[in-house]
Amino acid sequence: MTEDTPNDPQDAIDSQSKRRREELDDRIFEHSAGDEQEGIPFVGAGPGNPRLLTVAGKELLEDADLVVHAGSLVNSELLDEYCGHAELVNSVGKDLEELIPLMRDAYEDGDNVVRLHSGDPAIYGAALEQMDALEHEGVPTYFVPGVTSAFAASATLRTQLTLNEVSNHVAFTRPQGKTLTAEEDHISDFVEMGDVTTCIYLGTHAVRDTMDRLLEDDHDPETPVAVIYHASWPDEDVIVGDIGSIADKVEEAGYRASALVVIGDAVTGAGYERSFLYGDWANRGSSDANETETQAGDD
Ligand SMILES: C[S@@+](CC[C@H](N)C(=O)[O-])C[C@H]1O[C@@H](n2cnc3c(N)ncnc32)[C@H](O)[C@@H]1O
After folding, report:
1. Where in the chain is the domain with CATH 3.30.950.10?
2. pTM of the model
3. Spans of biased composition, class Basic and acidic residues (predicted)?
4. Most buried among 74, 151, 184, 252, using CB within 10 Å?
5. Could you report the per-residue pLDDT of 204-237, keeping only the tens digit for each?
6. pLDDT at residue 288 in the model
7. CATH 3.10.420.10, applies to 9-147
8. Does domain 150-267 have CATH number 3.40.50.300?
9. Which residues contact 229 (CB under 8 A, 6 or more apart)?
């Protein structure tokens, strides 16, 4: 914490970054994820269905006096169900200069404050900058994880994002646009790798451009693609196609936001091989638990 320019979030971010480079935060070793902690929790609301909120998140919301939430990305049913007596503030359209004093002042007045992000706050959540700005002003913060939309999408698709002999890796990514330059857009590289399931956040409006680029890069037009709109919400919609066909289908459906784009053979769940996990190979036995995990993989 420093005394200088307490209300400038960029100063706070710079100062917290400097501290992070110099020393690890003691709380890393004092607490586990899910522990009750002092401060403002940054809670993952999950993908939409209130039942996909964690127990820890639900308890924190039920005790909250002020909930600052991510607007339309958080299902209002969840707010109605769990934020009984809390004041609700939509963060959309508010900058750090407004949000930080709001949360800080409420916390310093003794209120239970919850910052509610959609999905998991660690994925395209811009949580850390808020946490740094609060910490810089002496307000402790911590994460409470949530179910990210890629996991809801894979559950809807009834598949795994990693699948033996089909997909060994998962990429959480976003397409080029205002935030990423063309050079920073790695979607084509992930698809090129062949055994990666590519989960594109923040890319519903850009499905046509993304698929056009993949075709220009000579990727197989029949590579499976699914677009899951509002995964786990009552109006969830699933559009299934391939690199060559999905853009027309998404345009026809009219979705421009709030969908996850999944590319790769794991989308269909076809063609995988049984894992080693439940066969003789796994039972050959090793006294070294870490070695067993490395070899056998999933549980
Ligand atoms: C700002 S990011 C936040 C992601 C969030 N932190 C998470 O872990 O899911 C918003 C993007 O997440 C995706 N998204 C969020 N909720 C979704 C849902 N229920 N179904 C499909 N995609 C969703 C969409 O791609 C949307 O553009």
Report:
1. 150-267
2. 0.92
3. 16-32
4. 74
5. 999 999 999 999 999 999 999 999 999 999 999 9
6. 56
7. no
8. no
9. 204, 235, 236, 237, 238, 239, 253, 255, 258, 259
